[in-house]
Amino acid sequence: MAKRKNRVKSLAEELDIFDDMLDTLIELLEEKGILTHGELEKRLKKRLLESSKMKSYRDIEFKNRRR
Hey, how many other C-beta atoms are within 10 angstroms of the C-beta on 40? Predict the structure, then answer.
C-alpha cells in the first residue's frame, strides 16, 4: 500500500511539473504574440474532440493485460 501511495504522489508531482512547464510555455507564446488564450482554447477543444473519437493506447494496453 505504501508503494502505491508513493507512486501516486510521484505521479502527482510530475503532473504539477508538467502543468508549470505548460503554463510557462503558454505565457511565453502569448508574450511573443504567437498564440492567444482564445486560440489555445480553440485548438485544445479541437484536439480533445479528435482524441475522444480515437482509441487510446492505454485502453488497448490495459485491455490486453486483463485477459
Answer: 13
| Segments in the chain forming alpha helices (H) | 2-31, 37-52, 57-66
Decide: pTM greater than 0.70. Answer: no
Q: Report domain extents, the chain.
A: 1-35, 37-67
Alpha-carbon span 32 to 26, nearest angstrom? 10
The Cα 58–Cα 23 span in angstroms is 25
Q: How far apart (Å, rounded) are the C-alpha atoms in residues 45 and 61?
A: 25
Cα within 13 Å of Cα(31), Cβ side: 6
Tell me the percentage of the chain whose pLDDT exceeds 70: 93
